[in-house]
Write a structure and sequence with these properties.
Layout: H1 49-57, H2 68-91, H3 98-130, H4 135-142, H5 144-165, H6 179-209, H7 220-239, H8 247-276, H9 280-284
Helix pairs in contact: 1-6, 2-8, 3-5, 3-7, 5-6, 7-8
Length: 286
C-alpha cells in the first residue's frame, strides 16, 4: 500500500509518513542551537566598551555550534578557579589585600599571554597544516578573528605601560601647566574609563571562549585551552610559585586547574561528537 501514510513510506518531518518513535525512525539528534545574531557595531556603539568587547572577543562565525550547556560549564569552571585562587592567596598570606590579589592575577594574565603568544601561532599552524584541502584553505581564512582577539588583549594590557614608559605621564606631570596638558588629562581619563571595562570584559571572554578560536573550528578551544593550562602549570612549577604554601595545597592548586580544564575539554569534545557529530578527525578530513 503506497501513499503518504503507508507503512513503508519514509517519515516526513513536515507531515505525512510515520512519526518517530516505536516502529518508526529514530528521533533526530538534538541541536545544534543557532547562535544569537550578532549586532552591528555602529559608530554610536563604539563608545560602549562592552559592545566593542563583544564584537572583538566573542565568536561570531554564523554556522558554528552554539551549545548553551558547554558555555555554562566553561563559565562555572572559570569562576570556581578564580575564587579558589583568590581564597588561597588571602588565606596563606600571599596577598595582603584585594589590590594585591588583583596585581597577582594580572601578573598571571601577563604570563598567560606570553605563553599564548608563543603557543597560539604554533598550535594553529599545526592544526591548519594537519588539515587536508579544502578545509586547510577554509581554516586559513578563519584565523584572522582569533588572532585579532589575542592582539587586541595584548595591546589593551600594554597601553598603560606604554603611556607611562614613553614619558607622556609621570608622577611629576604638572597637569595645569598649559591648556594642552588639561586637554590631555581629560583625554587620558576618558580613554582609561573606556579601556578598563573593555579590558576586563576581554579577559573574561578570552577565558571562556579561548580567544574566540571557535571561529576557527569548534574543537580548537578545548584543545588549545588544555595545552595552554598545562604549559602555565609547568611554568608555575619550575618558577616555584606558591612556595610558602603547604605542599599538598600547592600541588592541588598547581594541578587542579589543568586537570579540571582537561576534564571539561574532554567532556566538551565528547559532547560535540555525540550531540552534534563534530570531531577533530572530521575537521582535518582524516
Amino acid at each position: 500500500m503506497s501513499g503518504s501514510g503507508g507503512a513503508g513510506a519514509p517519515w516526513n518531518p513536515y507531515g505525512g509518513g510515520r512519526p518517530p518513535g516505536p516502529g518508526g525512525p529514530p528521533l533526530p539528534p538534538p541541536g545544534p542551537w543557532p547562535p544569537a545574531p550578532a549586532r552591528r557595531l555602529t559608530f554610536g556603539r563604539l563608545f560602549n566598551p562592552i559592545a566593542v568587547g563583544r564584537a572583538v572577543f566573542t565568536p561570531s562565525r554564523p554556522d558554528r555550534v552554539h551549545d548553551p550547556m558547554v558555555k555554562r560549564v566553561q563559565v562555572v569552571r572559570t569562576i570556581v578557579g578564580l575564587v579558589a585562587i583568590t581564597w588561597m592567596l588571602l588565606s596563606y598570606g600571599l596577598a595582603s589585600d584585594a589590590d594585591a590579589v588583583v596585581d597577582d592575577r594580572f601578573a598571571q594574565i601577563r604570563t598567560t599571554l606570553i605563553v599564548l603568544g608563543v603557543t597560539f601561532p604554533v598550535a594553529v599552524a599545526v592544526f591548519i597544516a594537519a588539515a587536508r584541502p579544502p578545509n586547510r584553505r577554509v581554516f586559513l581564512r578563519r584565523v584572522g578573528k582569533p588572532a585579532g582577539a589575542l592582539l587586541a588583549l595584548v595591546v589593551t594590557i600594554a597601553v598603560p605601560r606604554l603611556i607611562t614608559g614613553l614619558g607622556y605621564v609621570t608622577e611629576e606631570t604638572n597637569w595645569t601647566a598649559s591648556a594642552g596638558r588639561v586637554v590631555l588629562l581629560f583625554a587620558l581619563g576618558a580613554f582609561a574609563l573606556w579601556l578598563a571595562p573593555f579590558g576586563l570584559y576581554g579577559i573574561a571572554q578570552s577565558l571562556v571562549h579561548v580567544f574566540r578560536t571557535a571561529d576557527l573550528h569548534e574543537t580548537v578551544p578545548p584543545l588549545l585551552a588544555t595545552l595552554l593550562v598545562w604549559e602555565v602549570a609547568l611554568f608555575d612549577l619550575f618558577r616555584g610559585a606558591y612556595d610558602s604554601v603547604p605542599f599538598w595545597v600547592r600541588m592541588a592548586f598547581t594541578l587542579g586547574a589543568p586537570l579540571s580544564v582537561t576534564l571539561v575539554a574532554l567532556w566538551e569534545l565528547r559532547r560535540l561528537r555525540t550531540r552534534h557529530g563534530i570531531t577533530l578527525r572530521g575537521a582535518l578530513l582524516r
